[in-house]
Amino acid sequence: MDNNIGFALRQYLPILGVVLVWSSAYPLIKIALMYMSPIILAIIRLTIGGLILLIYGKGLIYGIKEFIGALLNVAIFMIFLNLGVLLSTNPALSATLIYTQPVFVAIFNYFLFKERIGKLRFLGIIIAISGAIYASGNISINIGALISLLGGFLWAIGTVYYRKYLLDKDVIKLNSFFALVSVPVLLPLVPYQNYFRFSLLGIFTAIIIGLTAQAMGFILWFTSVKTLGAFKSSSLSLLVPALSYFFSYLILGDIPTITEILGSSLVLIGVILTNLASIKH
C-alpha cells in the first residue's frame, strides 16, 4: 500500500514542478523587465532554454512547418507574454489571462474541426470571457491585461496549428527548435526596444527564467503528460495562474485588487469547466 502511494506521489512530482517554476516565473519576469526590454529578455530565455532542451533531447527537428510553429508558439507569443507582464498591474493577472488559451482552443476546434462545444463547455467559455473582460477593466488603464488576453488567443492559434501539423513530432526536439530558431527572428527587433541596464540582479533573473521556466518547465511538462496524461496535466496546470498571485505577493509584495481577484476567479472557473467538458468528448 505504501509503495502504491509512493508511486502515485512520484507521478505527480513533475506537474508539481511545472506549477512551481511557471507560476513563480511571472514575478521574476517583472523583475527582469526592470533592467531589459521584453525582446532582450525573450532572447536570453530562449537561448538558454533552447540549448538545454537541445542537449537533453539529443537533437532537434526542423522544417517549414516547424518554423511556422515556432513563430506562433514561441517568437510572437513570447513578445506578448513579456509585454503583458510588463504592462499589467499585477504579473499574476497576466498569467490568468494568458491561461484563457483552452477557451480559445475550444472555439477554434468548433470552427476548424467541427468539434461539438456542448452546454458545459459553452458555459465555461461564457464565464471565462466575461471574467477576462471584467479583469481587463478600462483599456486605457490596463492595456497589459488586454495584451495578455491576446497572448492567450495567439497561444491557442499555435496549439491548433500544432495539432494539425506537428502532433506526431518529438516534443523535446521540436521545442528545442522552436526556442533556438526564435532567437534570430527576435534579434532584428532589439533596436526597436533597445533598453538594457547592466545589473547582476537583472542578468541573474533572466538566466534563472531560462533555466527554470523554459528548460526545466518544458522537460517536466512533457514528463507529466507521459505519466499522468494530457487532461490531468492540463487541469493541474491551472494552478499556475492561481499560485502566481501568491508568488507575486511573496516576491514583489503585489496585492491583487478586488477586480483582479473576481475577474481572475471567473476566468479560472470558466477554464476549468471548459477542461471538464473534454472528458465527455
Mean pLDDT: 86
Number of helices: 12
Order of helices and strands: HHHHHHHHHHHH
Structural class: mainly alpha
Number of extended strands: 0
CA radius of gyration is 18 Å
Low-pLDDT sequence parts = none
What is the CA–CA distance across the termini? 33 Å
The rough form would be described as: globular
Helical proportion? Answer: over 70%
**Percent of residues in beta strands?**
under 5%
- Give the count of structural domains: 1
Largest beta sheet, briefly?
A: none
Protein name: DMT family transporter
Membrane topology: Multi-pass membrane protein
Transmembrane segments: 12-29, 35-55, 67-87, 93-113, 120-137, 143-162, 174-192, 198-222, 234-252, 258-277
Subcellular location: Cell membrane
List keywords for this structure.
79% helix; 281 residues
What does this structure look like?
Helices cover 79% and strands 0% of the residues. The chain has helices at residues 2-32, 38-57, 64-87, 91-98, 101-112, 118-136, 143-165, 171-186, 200-228, 230-236, 239-252, 258-277. With 281 residues, the chain is an all-alpha fold. The chain starts with a helix and ends with a helix. The model has no long low-confidence stretch (mean pLDDT 86). It has one domain (35-280). It is a multi-pass membrane protein. Keywords: Cell membrane, Membrane, Transmembrane, Transmembrane helix. This is DMT family transporter.
